[in-house]
## 1
Amino acid sequence: MKIALAQINPTVGDFSGNLKKILFFLKKAERGGADLCMFPEMAIPGYPARDLLFDGGFIDENLRTLERLAKQVGRTAAIVGFAARTGSRTGKGLFNAGALLHKGKVRQVFQKMLLPTYDVFDEFRYFDPAERVSLATIGRTTIGLSICEDIWNSSDFWEQRFYAADPVEMLAKKGAEMLVTISASPFVIGRRTLRHCVLKSIASRYGIPVFYVNQVGGNDQLIFDGCSIALDARGDVVAQGKAFEEDLVFAESHVAGPALPWIEEPVEENVYRALVLGVRDYAGKCGFKAAVIGLSGGIDSAVTACIAVEALGRKNVIGISMPSMYSSKASVTDARELAGSLGIRFAVIPITPLYRAYIQTLRPVFRRLRQDETEENIQARIRGTILMALSNKFGYLVLSTGNKSEVAVGYCTLYGDMTGGLSALSDVPKTLVYGLAHYINQHAEIIPQNCITKAPSAELKPGQSDQDSLPPYDVLDAVLTRYVEKREKPEEIIASGYDRKLVWDIVHSVERNEYKRNQAPPGLKVTTKAFGLGRRIPLAQKYY
Amino acid sequence: MKIALAQINPTVGDFSGNLKKILFFLKKAERGGADLCMFPEMAIPGYPARDLLFDGGFIDENLRTLERLAKQVGRTAAIVGFAARTGSRTGKGLFNAGALLHKGKVRQVFQKMLLPTYDVFDEFRYFDPAERVSLATIGRTTIGLSICEDIWNSSDFWEQRFYAADPVEMLAKKGAEMLVTISASPFVIGRRTLRHCVLKSIASRYGIPVFYVNQVGGNDQLIFDGCSIALDARGDVVAQGKAFEEDLVFAESHVAGPALPWIEEPVEENVYRALVLGVRDYAGKCGFKAAVIGLSGGIDSAVTACIAVEALGRKNVIGISMPSMYSSKASVTDARELAGSLGIRFAVIPITPLYRAYIQTLRPVFRRLRQDETEENIQARIRGTILMALSNKFGYLVLSTGNKSEVAVGYCTLYGDMTGGLSALSDVPKTLVYGLAHYINQHAEIIPQNCITKAPSAELKPGQSDQDSLPPYDVLDAVLTRYVEKREKPEEIIASGYDRKLVWDIVHSVERNEYKRNQAPPGLKVTTKAFGLGRRIPLAQKYY
């Protein structure tokens, strides 16, 4: 049997657009001689549709779209994800489901059994779990049907498992001769390799080929990377979808190898491409053509601008330098040089007169109180207001430029540099921002060397440097990775060799600045634990 | 058996504070001759602790606190909520649990079976469900043990049920002679009456007395109202805890009546008291003493100021009038009059010079483009920046003043009037804001009559009135209630007699402004569906 993996980029709620896309790929698969074409989990409504799933009209339209699609399925069968009503009077009333379509009809419907409800996932909010696994017969082959999380619970792979059931084992016991998985699995650094290991272990454990199709595209915080994969019964890779692009690949179900080499690209390349896709899709799916970025002359805004140019085209990116009296000369010249090398529009809007006007306005209430962070924040908020004014006047998306390290410890101003519709780097630690800059500059100096080499500074008071307020970034990032991503206890981090005061200072900074992140723009997720959707901390709490 | 219901106000993660509070009430119950004193669900860690539950140290300290408490329990037994490790290698690893403590020891542990995972609740994210119900014997009485949601799934009460199991029925079948429920059930308009109905139906269906203790206090968006309740075996109320306050009430387990009359206070009174508690606790638990409010002379900021004064005391509330050239004279005089009648500090900070400075600064990029909402937003953002400057300089909490109607349709400026640490009215529809104003003024004119009677206006351009951009508030609120709270489909709303274009305009405004609410301050929840935690809509979507 010839199987096509169609990794498409649906938009949540764009039923006619998603249908068109599915049909386009289906016809291509048919022309390629496929017996079966697989589409991602929730390909019809898009994933994650979140609380739109509570909207009866939304579910109706998703069902109508499935029927419309079925009518156009001919000799190439299709498997496609959608939201199915359970018809039960107990439970949530919906299944995360897949349908097998063939010759004008919905032949079979199957349901997801394992519902991820952790990190960014909330599936128990919406769905009831399948009570049993489903097999289908296509030609003479018995096929095990599964959806995403269903394959992530093998007892020989995981120490601690979220679920008691292992649907893959159940399918194998019931005689599945091959496994198909439709998925919407978001990008995370290293996830592609982990996915490969999981799939390989299934193929070799049960001696069956495995066909895995994944969604591609950005949806708010999440970036789906595609990287669909087909493995033969020995666990060797026989076909792979591209990363971060729509793609259609073919594989024969019971022909072994030749095995393709397994490689995961370097972290910097993956993260860069993920962020480009995330920015492009957020803008595109929200209806923005162009983006505006405050260029400080520093590395964060430089990397953000490069990503935006790759995502939207240089004509659709506008860089604004907003110097104050505390800005170094280089802040404007470096920003201008960057804009020149990227070929983007650039303007300088000095904020000193506005800053003076605020100080003047506030003098009657501030009297002679000494300067503190208040005045620094005013500068950042003037810049935020200016960027939003450009957004309002010209319809630009404001891209905020803060990195994960500073967002983590609150070294950023709410309504100031945190202003924006999307944050490209808020899950990228500062040390990796440097890595991205080097990746961007690998063939030519796009980012001026000075942006990379100068000491990072917020330039909000005379002679300021990040390192006056923060530990060195390599230390900060190492502690943050342990504390935020790996959830190590502070005492464990200290025991592994970090200074006690340093660790506790970082932990307290992280937890006491949750209120800022609670009002931050959505930020693209690239690590196992991003702030936002996947990390939900109460604001009023006295533990930290 | 004499039972005490101790409705306490714990703080998330404040283990020593919560323990102290529990002991204080336990001693009081002991002095009152109670055999058993009941504390709320999760009384030890506070509810909801959210992702702090993933913190191993947090769980450890919660367990140590339970042990510490057990040692001090003497002849009055205690039932108290905490987070228990399951010890299993599958699942989430935690139970939402309760412990029965007596004479220095943890005698029994029981678990919550039904885990709410809808609206503001995410319990499947953290907990595994109990596999069986638990009974305890105290003296000679067999007691059915339950936690919050466990009692909300009776098949004769609900048409559509979230869960197949009914723990109360299971307990009754196993011979429970009375039911105890420890709970953390947030306030919602009408919820108290619904709770009473549910409890009464249980008592009368099974002919057993029911003892229900509820948490009290504000935790971020959620306000827990207390209102603990004891019912005799006929379903008559025999004891009730106060609303919105800590309280300790006693009831005999098998003595019938005299039945107390059941009354729920008027909506305005309940909402007012809920918001006062929400503001007081958010400020108190986050460490703010004082709050600053932008007083526009309108009704929203007036009502917010009254709530703040009741919550924090008049010495701890600061009102700021920030007139522009578009502000009416009355905007300052009404604000000043309000500040006078409340006895709060008041300052006028005119923003016209700042506004002119922005226009001047932006002239080179805006050229001769005509004025639009950009210039209106600049005014709002200047005000936001000034309030944040006062917050930064003096440590005030900024209370944002937008109501639910305007937040729903996006008639508000991100980083402008949406600035703040907490939003008191963001779940209060405009029509109910008027109701609150009348409630506040029932005995004396605290809010100047002019704030209430004048036509609402944002005063961001000459001669502006809300009704130029929005439908009349009674119509808007009626449609919003149907669409947001009751989740009626737009076509259903139209079919019930509303204008088609009006309904679709409102629906589109709601959905297209999700990006603003996504960065809004937390807002206190008082309706069945508040924006924020309980309503999770994708930003990049093409359905609406």
## 2
Amino acid sequence: MARKSGYAIGLDFGTESVRALFVDLEGNQVGAAVVKYKHGQITRTLPTSGAKLPPDYALQHPNDWIDGASRAVRKALKISGVPAREVIGIGVDFTSCTMLPTLADGTPLCVDRRFAKVPLAWPKLWKHHGAETQTDRINLVARRRKETFLKRYGGIIGLEWFFPKVLETLEGAPKVYAAAEVWLEAGDWFVWQLVGGEAKDLPRSTCQAGYKAMWSKADGYPSTAFFRALNPAMAHVVRDKMPGRLVAPGELAGVLTPTMARKMGLPAGVPVSAAIIDAHVGVPGAGADKPGTLVMVLGTSSCHMLNSTEDCFVPVVAGIVEDGILPGYFGYETGQAAVGDAFDWLRVMLGQRNFDQITESARAVPAGSDGVLCLDWMNGCRTPLMDGSLKGGFMNLTLNHTPGHLYRALLEASAFGLRWIIEQCQEHGVRVDKLVATGGLPHHNPLLVQIYADVLGKSITVHPCQYGPALGAAILGVMVAGKKASGFASPGAAIRTMAAPRKNVPGRQAVVVRPVHADRKAYDRAYRRYRNLADMAVAASKQE
Amino acid sequence: MARKSGYAIGLDFGTESVRALFVDLEGNQVGAAVVKYKHGQITRTLPTSGAKLPPDYALQHPNDWIDGASRAVRKALKISGVPAREVIGIGVDFTSCTMLPTLADGTPLCVDRRFAKVPLAWPKLWKHHGAETQTDRINLVARRRKETFLKRYGGIIGLEWFFPKVLETLEGAPKVYAAAEVWLEAGDWFVWQLVGGEAKDLPRSTCQAGYKAMWSKADGYPSTAFFRALNPAMAHVVRDKMPGRLVAPGELAGVLTPTMARKMGLPAGVPVSAAIIDAHVGVPGAGADKPGTLVMVLGTSSCHMLNSTEDCFVPVVAGIVEDGILPGYFGYETGQAAVGDAFDWLRVMLGQRNFDQITESARAVPAGSDGVLCLDWMNGCRTPLMDGSLKGGFMNLTLNHTPGHLYRALLEASAFGLRWIIEQCQEHGVRVDKLVATGGLPHHNPLLVQIYADVLGKSITVHPCQYGPALGAAILGVMVAGKKASGFASPGAAIRTMAAPRKNVPGRQAVVVRPVHADRKAYDRAYRRYRNLADMAVAASKQE
């Protein structure tokens, strides 16, 4: 099929701002703009009343999403010089689980005069941690009822997920719950605003639903009986308050309404993809169209994602979702809870202004850190243990050890945690053929990537893109534009062409980090000792 | 008995220098001088040949001891203005096990032309670590032969002790071993120089012999069969190369010879006590005349000592020696391998120029360090586990923890280690009634002393003396002067009068640190968790 001309827009909704990226069908950036949310994260006082919020609250203002995105698209459009009529598709990625209650017409409850001063009527940001007791109960009830959905989530429902936040609202602000006609993810809400339509048809992403709302293609949402056991008032939450249809990312949610088109300076009728979670969009964003490529999004924490043709029961993943990342595959999500932020915590602990000195010292320390062992669970263990109560540590210290030893041991612990995850996947039949690192960290921390490669004994491709999520979202836009408009015969062709590294194109060249095999033996020994220490720490935590 | 006038001299031989202290019979300092050894620690090259020494060597020059002590006594005498004839006794404490080979007349082999260029002919300083393989063999053979002396030393013979150094010389420089007519501790050698006499009568301290040469009053030295099993050439080392008689510290070794009297500017005939180890002299130096007072000498490492009327089998002490500290008692020695040096290591690790900031932060952290647990085994575990291969660590770390948490957790670990030791003593029938802290650290680190008091639930008396060891040595001098000269009816009376804190005498007032009982529960919990962690670390070290 002949290559077409045209442009796609990726809208990447982060915690503080939204980015609009315009790309051509080669994946080249032609315009981009970032707009900060006017209200940012709402963590201290409510904008309407000035009322003080509890310490674990984190809310957002839905107008910021509409205003921010509209301004970002207009700016990027202007910068690009692209004729608006040549935009062939739009994709949206969003933080998750960021969610809100609305009326049947999509109006957020928090902009309704009756509820504007009730904190729990506001959109709860992913990191809102107000639902601790509800999460505990959800896990207790699910385990007691032997709910089969648990096995898709490593046995644990997360504090930041969808139903904990719904239940928190039901129990903390029953009037808000009663008035809510629709509960939905912010990403889905935004796409619904773009494409319009009735609530019963609103396009809910299989990604958000699968990873955060215990939905699966085979079984749907949890049962009425389960919800009744949580709280009788919530028994029919799905039937009564979660209208819509499930659509995979890269599948058509609808087309741009005239109203939203006007706001954004675009023509009406542009195809829009179902939303995707900002982490999971890293898979198409890194050019990974094939199953078996583990895309590691490395930042404050890390998210490792993988598509597979197989639905294997892997007990240690944060989520397994059919059509969860790309249509037609089972998407596996794993991750580590403290990566960049643990490195930064240690840097501050060691009295260092930047990473220069400890990086240099850590480089001089041999593989295995002269015996120092670390557990990188300073923010709990996400995968493989799914236990947020676990804690980190450094062992085997002597008076001869230096800050460089601690820092290297922490980097190695991060690599050992990843090796553990990959081994578990492979033992349960999920192939991991290729490793791609993306996100900010691999560019800033080459020592980390080298240690990952050495510990895993595998090359790692550091993806060159600086806007991985926005690019991935734009690719979803291309996918829904259809073959005729894009010229791509398959989703894979779009992903490869637009996002895979290219040897001879400036800005698209990947760095491939190869393992230093001489270090392998030392790492193998250290890995066994790490696993022993991990076992002991788990045993100790159970004693307490 | 009426109080007499008169003065005693304490000679305190440290690693770098010797201190001479003149005190009156109230324990008041009337003159003091410190003289650095001309050759200091000989660790790099031999003074005679310039030959490079192996990295674990640490030697000394015997002339430094004679010259240094003579100059220090003359200086202190001059400063004091005391008439030399009023000196009634001399006591000597010395680092241990610092030891040397001599000819039958006391001439050190290293000053004999034949051996001056042989490193192993020189006095080995306590910290000389050249005997690793020999120490391993000694422990192996002792365990295999089920030697009963092991139980007096927590089951382990130390790398720094007497016979490892003898065996090292036999195997590394057999001609030196063959030429040696006397092997002895440096403290005993110095006392022998002071009092003269033939080798067969040379006064060997029961303290040095008991704590470092596996001697006991009941059983003497290890058997010929044991030494033969180590190395047939060493079978008769005690009979052939260790002449002398055993004398307790505070018992008369002899009187000052005219030759040494001339060198020091003192009258001949002054009574001289048998030597004592520089740590153990802290007991009389802290005014602890009664059994049941634990004297904690806190510095780089710590030594906790206790006299008891009972000979109990305590499996966790570094040494139990009858007449080992004071005549008539069983002296118990325990200790922790990393105290001040671990604190300093952590301070440097955390990028702190001094302790001000981390001390302030640690004070603000509640008892139990918000869950952070430390094992203070960065230099191995001396007591209670007697395992130098154990290592330290920090566990239960989260991203919320700060340098103050690590520092407080380390101080608490030190206190927990002490509590463990004391509990073990008490469980095996050794009473601990009173706690006295001495050495440099308690004066500089009041937070440590407070945490010790809180964790133990007992008041701690911080002894005011700045020259504890030298004062303790001087008291041994008073003890050998006899009742008639000193006016003291008993050793206890001399110790109490001369070294116990006094409420109304400036410079003699003790600080008594009382436990804050509110913190006790938190510490009890943390202590149980510390013991669990210790068990796990020991199990892990055995796996490796």
